[in-house]
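User: Structure with zinc ion, C-alpha cells only please.
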Amino acid sequence: MFDLMARAIDTRPEPPCPKCGGQDFKRWDRKHFLIIHWLLNPGLCVNELLLGQRLPKVMLICQKCDEPLADRSYVPCSECGVLHTGRLWGKQLAFGHWFGLVCPTCGKVIPCIWNFWSLLILIFMFPIWYFPAQIARPHWLDFERHRIGRVLGEPITPASDIPWIRLGMFAWGGIMWGVFSAGIAIHAVVERDWYLLWPIPAMIPMWALGGMFWGLLIKTWMNRKPSRSVL
Ligand SMILES: [Zn+2]
Ligand SMILES: [Zn+2]
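Assistant:
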C-alpha cells in the first residue's frame, strides 16, 4: 500500500515552495545516497526501533531559496500534497514516530522508510509486537496529531541559530551513552560481575567528543546554501 502511495506522489506535480514560490526541487528518495545510507546502516536500528526516529520516503529540497539546507527541506504529504517544512519534526517532535509521521494538515500518515536491519528485527519479533501495535496504533496516532498541532503554533528557530555542537554533545552524545551504558549494565547484571561496569564512566568523554564532532558535522551540513550544494 505504501508503495502505491509513493507512486501517487511521483505523478503529482509538486506544489510550489512555501517560501519562494519556486518549483525547482532536489528530490531525496530511495535513489539519494543519504536515504540509501539510512536504509543500510545497522546502527540506525536504535534510532528507529528504540527512539522512533523516522525518515519520510520523499523529501524535497528547494533549490531557489537562499537559506540553510535545514530551512529549505520539505516533507510532502502523500495524501493532501501540502509541503511541510522538515524542521517541524525537529526538537521535541524528533522521536516517537513508530507508526510514521503525521501530516498536520490532513492528519493522515506520511509514509516513512524502514532501515533494512530494523525490518529484519521486526520480522523476527513479529509475534511479540504485532497485536500490541495494532491496539496502540490509533491512540498513538491521535497523540501524534495532538502534539504536532501544539508545535505548529510555535515559531521555528532559523537553522543558523541552533546550537548544534552543544546539542551533539548533550543530546546525541547523551543518548548514545545511555543506550550503550544500558547494554553494559545488562551484561554486568547477567554476568554478576560489577567490574564490567567500568566502561560506563570511561565512555563519557568519548561520547562527549563524538557528540561534538557529530554536532559540527550536522552544523556544516544543515547550513549549506544552494549555490554551494553538490548534491
Ligand atoms: Zn524556495
Ligand atoms: Zn496531508
